[in-house]
């Protein structure tokens, strides 16, 4: 009898089927005096009618049972010496190794178990639940995921046990041990068409896929009935398109060449992949294949191949090792997409992520028609997985033996709970684990790691990937060789500089001191000596008086209290100054909020009462404005006034106009290349900080630039604020067809062209740690661009001139 839950009630008999047993075939080695080979096949009078309530189970014919939980069901007793249940009950059990189970079942305490437990038997149990008398012959199965549905796979058949309810595991007959007997018995008893292929997991799962239970469903009840539908918002595996993923291929691929080698685009011509995917028997891959989407359908794409130009494998990696398994591949040409960002922290922003994998197409489409569509082609998949702590990463023995040092910080353990039908999903070598994060009003794809090893994409049991963050230093050394060389040079300079620092312990504060050239100086605190830090950076000879905080300073460079207040000290304390003024600023509408730091630099003729605004600048202290040298080099129009507080001014006395006391262009300004295109304007009047006018800060970091800043431009007809992003110098020089000059950087916009006027400021706002209003930093000054879409503009990098600014102040 099948399709009936309550054997003693007719209320649920609508779909019940009851068929006669015409033949019982016991295993030939089974005897009633022993507990071994306890399995049989029963031939029915006719085929069952397949329906949602009655459908064949699949057989799990792999000897390895790696599932955490198994289900059993039956109408047996509900407890020791209790009545049998009229309603079918199911129980969740945990499989045990036979070595553990042998503690409960030995030849001395179980009749008919003279040789102990055999390999064709398996145990499963639970601290509170168990199968019981009357459940014999019932199923021990697992539900495996495929096609957004689950199919039961029979792992064992209930055989025997001890009195139930006493926390003893039960013993089950392992179905996998009898694969050959089951198939041959069916073939010789009226089913000669049965083949091994029909018992493959994919074949059985697809056979009745249209009537299998939904894995994640939504039940809706209304006046017309109760309906169940698939909840796509909670699906485990999707076929979403990942534009940053690529494949690596070899020309004339041999059968032993790596397959499913993937990587992720991290720069316009650069891919990061596994070290094992970057070399096969000493031969590098010859082509990188990138898929470009052509429509909204899942298979709407074209493939574009790029020749491999250069391959760099991590120097510590050895073939087949799970350590330092990383490589960088450069192509001839450029990918036409925005690269993925490398997540540069060990802590993940979210434990959920997506991974690029492959799987059989017919196991990953929603099949609801009675005729199954078979399609064994591999398609790309994007399963949802979660990161696990490495200490809780339970790996199969085949992987553990290759981890001589265990899992390290460079490894990312990941997975998901459900087990899959085999071939539903398989890891690629180097498939990216990524997540789209919303930052700076945009979505950015961040890649965390590359898949390394594991089964079924980490579903059921964890898989492992290699993180990119622990390898950032090596990645930077091959991706940013200039920066790496510069840092090494700076370290070398710092080492060499030890020999040019002298300390005269007999000199004290305000003593006279003598330089090696015979000139005379004064011993003052280092912070009162203008340019001392810059001279130390240039490895010039520095004389210290009595200790490292007092230096010998030329009289012209000694700063008084006024210099400290309105010079270097003001720049250094800028982020901590003007908090009340910033707090007031954020209360005003953001659309036309006063530009308190931006200066309009102009030329004015008092005799004719005529003038013009030449360019913009940025107020960095109360008596100095930064702009470009180009701005102050216009023939016959040398600027002589500065206007502040007039842009979006909201107060009657907002605007302040002052004359320029001194214009200081950088001594190495090159008018032809716009190298060192920076100038400082010293103002005649002290600009008292108000709600309308107060200084902004200078961006301090010489190696990193904010991911998104704002370019402010103004002319007679418009005011524009444009989101803008930094670009690597290498990419910029390639786009511009020439090298950057000293002190220059490149920036680009996502859509449109970079276009502005010389001196236009680029600024970035940072939230303060105490929760007060943002601090605004001057990051750059617009130098020049050709105003063409997709081509970067050239800007003055402010952080490169901080020492020069200190000197001239």
Number of helices: 12
| CATH hierarchy: architecture of the largest domain | Beta Barrel
Per CATH, the class of the largest domain reads Mainly Beta
Biggest beta sheet summary: 6 strands, antiparallel, barrel
Q: What are the low-pLDDT stretches, counting only 5+ consecutive residues below 50?
A: none
- CATH H-tier superfamily of the largest domain: Trypsin-like serine proteases
User: Over the alpha carbons, how many angstroms does the gyration radius reach?
Assistant: 38 Å
Give the structural class. mainly beta
Fold-level CATH name of the largest domain: Thrombin, subunit H
How much of the sequence lies in strands comes to 25-35%
Give the CA-based shape: elongated
Average pLDDT confidence is 90
Give a quick set of tags describing it.
single chain, about 800 residues, mainly beta, Thrombin, subunit H, six-stranded antiparallel beta barrel, six-stranded antiparallel β-barrel, about 35% strand, Peptidase_S1_PA_chymotrypsin, protease, serine-type endopeptidase activity, hydrolase, Peptidase_S1_PA
């Amino acid at each position: 009898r099948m399709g009936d839950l309550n054997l003693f009630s007719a209320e649920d008999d609508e779909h019940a089927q009851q068929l006669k047993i015409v033949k019982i075939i016991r295993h030939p080695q089974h005897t009633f005096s022993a507990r071994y080979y306890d399995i049989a096949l029963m031939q029915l009078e006719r085929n069952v009618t397949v329906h949602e309530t009655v459908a064949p189970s699949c057989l799990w014919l792999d000897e390895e049972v790696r599932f955490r939980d198994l289900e059993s069901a039956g109408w047996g007793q509900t407890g020791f010496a209790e009545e049998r249940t009229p309603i079918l009950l199911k129980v969740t059990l945990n499989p045990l190794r036979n070595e553990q189970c042998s503690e409960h079942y030995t030849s001395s305490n179980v009749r008919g178990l003279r040789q102990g437990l055999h390999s064709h038997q398996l145990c499963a149990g639970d601290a509170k639940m168990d199968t019981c008398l009357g459940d014999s012959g019932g199923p021990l199965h697992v539900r495996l995921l495929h096609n957004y549905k689950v199919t039961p796979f029979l792992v064992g058949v209930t055989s025997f046990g001890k009195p139930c309810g006493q926390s003893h595991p039960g013993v089950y007959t392992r179905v996998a041990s009898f694969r050959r007997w089951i198939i041959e018995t069916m073939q010789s008893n009226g089913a000669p068409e049965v083949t091994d292929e029909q018992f493959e997991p994919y074949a059985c799962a697809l056979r009745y896929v249209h009537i299998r239970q939904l894995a994640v469903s939504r039940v809706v009840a209304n006046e017309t009935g109760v309906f169940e539908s698939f909840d796509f918002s909670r699906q485990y595996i999707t076929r979403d398109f990942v534009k940053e993923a690529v494949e690596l291929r070899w020309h004339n691929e041999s059968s032993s060449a790596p397959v499913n080698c993937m990587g992720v685009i991290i720069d316009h011509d650069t891919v990061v992949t596994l070290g094992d995917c970057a070399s096969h028997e000493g031969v590098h891959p010859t082509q990188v294949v990138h898929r470009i989407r052509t429509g909204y359908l899942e298979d709407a794409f074209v493939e574009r191949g790029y020749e491999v130009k250069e391959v760099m494998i991590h120097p510590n990696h050895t073939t087949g090792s799970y350590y330092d398994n990383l490589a960088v591949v450069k192509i001839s040409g450029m990918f036409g997409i925005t690269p993925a960002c490398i997540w540069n922290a060990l802590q993940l922003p979210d434990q959920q992520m997506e991974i690029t994998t492959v799987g059989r197409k017919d196991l990953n489409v929603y099949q609801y028609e009675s005729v199954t569509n078979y399609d064994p082609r591999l398609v790309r998949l994007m399963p949802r997985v979660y990161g696990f702590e490495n200490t809780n990463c339970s790996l199969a023995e085949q992987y553990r033996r290759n981890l001589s040092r265990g899992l390290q910080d460079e490894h990312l353990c990941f997975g998901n709970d459900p087990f899959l039908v085999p071939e539903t999903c398989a890891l690629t070598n180097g498939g990216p684990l990524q997540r789209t994060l919303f930052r700076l009003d945009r979505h950015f794809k961040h890649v965390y790691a590359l898949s390394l090893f594991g089964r079924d994409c980490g579903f059921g049991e964890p898989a492992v990937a290699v993180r990119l963050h622990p390898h950032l230093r090596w990645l930077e050394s091959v991706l940013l060789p200039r920066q790496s060389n510069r840092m090494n040079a700076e370290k070398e300079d710092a080492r060499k500089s030890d020999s040019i620092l002298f300390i005269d312990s007999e000199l004290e504060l305000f003593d006279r001191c003598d330089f090696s050239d015979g000139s005379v100086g004064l011993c003052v605190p280092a912070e009162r000596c203008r340019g001392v830090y810059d001279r130390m950076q240039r490895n010039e000879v520095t004389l210290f008086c009595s200790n490292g905080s007092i230096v010998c300073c030329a009289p012209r460079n000694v700063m008084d209290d006024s210099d400290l207040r309105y010079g270097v000290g003001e720049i250094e304390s800028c982020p901590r100054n003007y908090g009340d003024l910033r707090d007031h600023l954020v209360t005003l509408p953001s659309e036309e909020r006063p530009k308190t730091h931006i200066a309009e630099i102009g030329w004015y003729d008092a005799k004719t009462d005529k003038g013009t605004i030449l360019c913009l600048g940025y107020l960095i202290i109360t008596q100095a404005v930064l702009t470009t040298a180009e701005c102050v080099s216009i023939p016959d129009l040398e600027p002589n006034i500065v206007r502040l507080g007039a842009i979006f001014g909201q107060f009657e006395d907002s605007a302040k106009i002052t004359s320029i006391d001194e214009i200081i262009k950088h001594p190495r300004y090159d008018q032809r290349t716009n190298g060192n295109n920076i100038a400082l304007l010293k103002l005649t009047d002290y600009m008292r900080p108000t709600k309308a006018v107060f200084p902004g800060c200078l961006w301090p970091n010489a190696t990193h630039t904010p991911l998104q800043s704002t370019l402010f431009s103004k002319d007679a007809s418009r005011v524009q604020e444009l989101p803008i992003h930094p670009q690597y110098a290498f990419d910029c020089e390639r786009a511009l067809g020439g090298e950057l000059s000293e002190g220059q950087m490149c920036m680009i916009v996502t859509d449109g062209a970079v276009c502005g006027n010389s001196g236009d400021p680029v600024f970035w706002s940072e939230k303060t740690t105490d929760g007060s209003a943002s601090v605004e930093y001057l990051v750059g000054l617009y130098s020049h661009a050709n105003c063409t879409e997709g081509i970067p503009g050239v800007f003055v990098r402010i952080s490169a001139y901080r020492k020069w600014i200190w000197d001239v102040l």
